[in-house]
Amino acid sequence: MVNEIPITRTQLSNGLTVLLKEIHTAPLISFWVWYRVGSRDEVRGKTGLSHWVEHMQFKGTPRFPPGVLDRWISREGGMWNAFTYLDWTTYFETLPANKIDLALDLEADRMVNSRFDPEDVEAERTVILSEREGSENEPLFLLGEAVQMAAFDHHPYRYEVIGLKEDLRQITRDDLYHHYRRYYTPANALIAAAGDFETGMMLEKIEQTFGHLPPGEVIRKEIPQEPPLAQERRVEVKGPGTTVFMHLAYRAPAANHPDFFAFTVLDSLLSGPSSLNMFGGGGVSNKTSRLYQALVERELAVSIGGGLHATIDPYLYDLVITVHPKSTPEAVLNAVDAEIQRLHVEPVREEEIQRALKQARALFAYGSENITNQGFWLGFSEMFATYEWFAHYVERLSAVQPEDVQRIAQTYLQPQRRVVGVYQPTGEEAMA
Amino acid sequence: MTATPSSEIWRSLPGPEDITRVELPNGIVVLTRSNFNSASVVINGYLPCGSKYDPLDKLGLAGFTARALMRGTARYDFHALHDMLESAGASLGFSANVHTITFGGRALAEDLPLLLNLLSSCVREPTFPIEQVERLRAQLLTSLAIRVQDPAEMAELTFDALLFPDHPYGRSEDGYPETIQKITREDLAAFHQAYFRPQGMVLVVVGAVTAEEVMAQVDTALGDWSASPMADEENFPAVKPPAQSIRQHVPLPDKAQTELIIGTLGPKRNHPDYLPASLGNNILGQFGMMGRIGEVVREKAGLAYYAMSSLNAWMVAGSWEVNAGVNPANLERAIGLIQEEIRRFISEPVSEEELSDSQSHFIGRLPLSLESNAGVAGAILNMERFNLGLDYLQRYPQQVLAVTREQILDVARRYLDPERLIIVSAGPPIDG
Q1: Does B142 touch chain A (CB under 8 A)?
Q2: Across-strand partners of B307?
Q3: Which domains are assigned to chain A?
Q4: Looking at CA atoms only, how far is residue A416 from chain B in angstroms?
């Protein structure tokens, strides 16, 4: 299994953390740079900064003008991309093993030398507005954004990563550049590489390309935690269409909290197994989960999905439901509450936990087929815990007892601790 | 930069040496390749019947049938079937396209017998329980109600209908609300009875099992399915390029972004034009950050988050299209820029450098696209479906390198006529 392969963890003298995992199944290497910055580090008025900086990282440096990198990586048949999340921003290249130097050179270069040309900033403003408008075409984006905002009063987790439209209209080039200079430093970054290399040689290469960069400042922000919601909040979003959607969000524990693992088992029973795979692997359906049985099989909903998020601070446990045309949000909510009530009073069976474990093991095996996904795992867990969190994930799930699941349900899944969001369509009866 | 993969990569490409292909006495073709790097296994394949057999008043019949296969069989009801799958962390699914009913699944290698047993039960002995059929119908109708509000899907649906009038390629495989309403349980059973045969079925298995084990397990699950007379292959009407440009807008009030498609016919997959068109398309709207189109529409003008071209080559014809998501105010400008790029593309050959970049990309990306079991299974299925030969990937680099700039210009001119394009947009209503 993946977590049996040893990894190497070290730190350069400038504070850059490095995690390496040799995997010799294909002549490929996936190279990742993670920065401890995301929408968690933004304030009202400047939401969307981290994601926009990520876009600007593709606009070139004096050494690698725009287009050049793209061309080189594409020519080698490689893949590169970047993601911005609540807590982190990450960049990766997956390339044939003998071409990986290119990734190191470009990541070291753009950690410090990106241009942030004012004209590029303006062109990217409309690109990002277009990205946001594409999302606004989706009812579930509109609903999710409203629910997220209602779930927190102050914490930056209340904003979508892409940022508010009014902020995207007025963020300046200097805002972006300062954000970049502050957070894109070795002290605030982590390198994760997985694939077909020899650890000693890879470390040497990393030292050569990144070792001379100025360390920068370690930034570990403490954000005041908000008390649990004292009262249920309801939000309604109106928009085009004929389908009613619901989004329930319960305040959930941080990934590093001991409750997180029991909550993962609970989620698996309630809404089906979730996968930690970012690339490849596919999923397992949830048709035997308790909520699918209670909602879809009883024709109150046509689909249900749920998920927990691995985050630094306590975030949300989401249930997203497409309401059956012949049902109502209230009927759905009653059925959800009845299932949650059952978890409060009846301990789950040991075999249900065993089943969740087997599902987790299978999902891990699927994810380990893919080198890029292995590189992702290596860095991801370090953003909110350490790699140990990931390496012992299945083990920690297997320690969960029925009474833990019951306690989680009693603690977190209380109506007063949630936001209930409903998308109310304004359209007439749909006919194509 | 060299355009030839290293010998190490070369040896790792699936080919006749390590793909086992066996035709069972009942006509099922089984292809398999072992990969012991991870404990998992992937299956995919198809049965040779699809929406081409849908009666006009019951469009969506093949798709409805495919989706209903897992709703209950002679041996397993809906719950038992999904309980077996989900308890193993395995997955299985069916869907329909014009020519085939396709399936795909994955499991831990130890559960391959379970996966094959369920596959067999679903394709051979589905019972279409009435209650499940009605539940599924409501789910299909809801997804069609969501589709009718989705600009990207509505643009694609409208584009296909205009490009392929009176042709199965121009009709939705998912059907339309009024046709899904008309389909009865008996129609599903009759479709299954008429078209499901072992002859022409293709099954690919890739993962941590030996070819011998695979063949023995497949034989146990499907070997005793007896062949019976085949339905006649349907004759497809000929396709013709548009006689003139057609401009159509699908108004979707209250949406934020307009989805745009500009395109025409493309070559079928098994045509000598396919490879030059495919390389040309890569240059036009894919290479790097979406080729020439992406450079002009996204990078220079900042008009869209995505703007790209694609070649969709299928059994009897294909389409060649440019897609973009733009702010409604920028729609006409985006159309103009894209038309200009198409004119440029057919007026002069691509540069030496562009061709060499795309050739290198096509060859270089093979290892990455083939690292996972799903990637290998997909490649093997394509070899079989389009009769490309098991040595296709091994011959591929030479074929790619043999394509010339003149060939690309020639196919571009024969397919892309700037005066005869179908231009479809879907989004907020257009004034005037």
Answers
A1: yes
A2: B324
A3: 2-210 (3.30.830.10), 233-425 (3.30.830.10)
A4: 31
Cα separation, A52 vs B96, in Å, equals: 40
B299–chain A Cβ distance below 8 A for any pair: yes
Q: Complex ipTM, two decimals?
A: 0.91
Question: Domain-by-domain residue ranges, chain B?
Answer: 15-222, 246-427
Binary contact (A137, B178; C-beta < 8 A): no
Nearest to B81 by CA among B90, B67, B89, B70: B70
Residue B9: its chain A contacts at CB < 8 A?
Answer: 27, 96
Pick out chain B residues at pLDDT < 50: 1-3
The whole-number pLDDT of residue A26 equals 85
Helix (H, G, I), strand (E, B) or coil at A49: helix
User: CA of A429 to nearest chain B CA: how many angstroms apart?
Assistant: 9
* A267-302: pLDDT as tens digits: 999 999 988 787 776 789 999 999 999 999 999 999
B15-61 pLDDT tens trace: 999 999 999 999 999 999 999 988 999 999 999 999 999 999 999 99
CATH 2.60.40.10 is right for the domain spanning B15-222:
no
* Cβ-Cβ contacts under 8 Å, B325 against chain A: 130, 133-134
Q: Does B11 touch chain A (CB under 8 A)?
A: no
Instruction: Look at residues A78, A241, A427 and name the one whose alpha carbon lies nearest to residue B9.
Output: A78
**Cα–Cα dist B129/B58, whole Å:** 19
Place of tokens 């690919």: B204
Residue A123 to residue B302, Cβ atoms within 8 A: yes
- d(CA A348, CA A352) in angstroms, rounded, equals 7
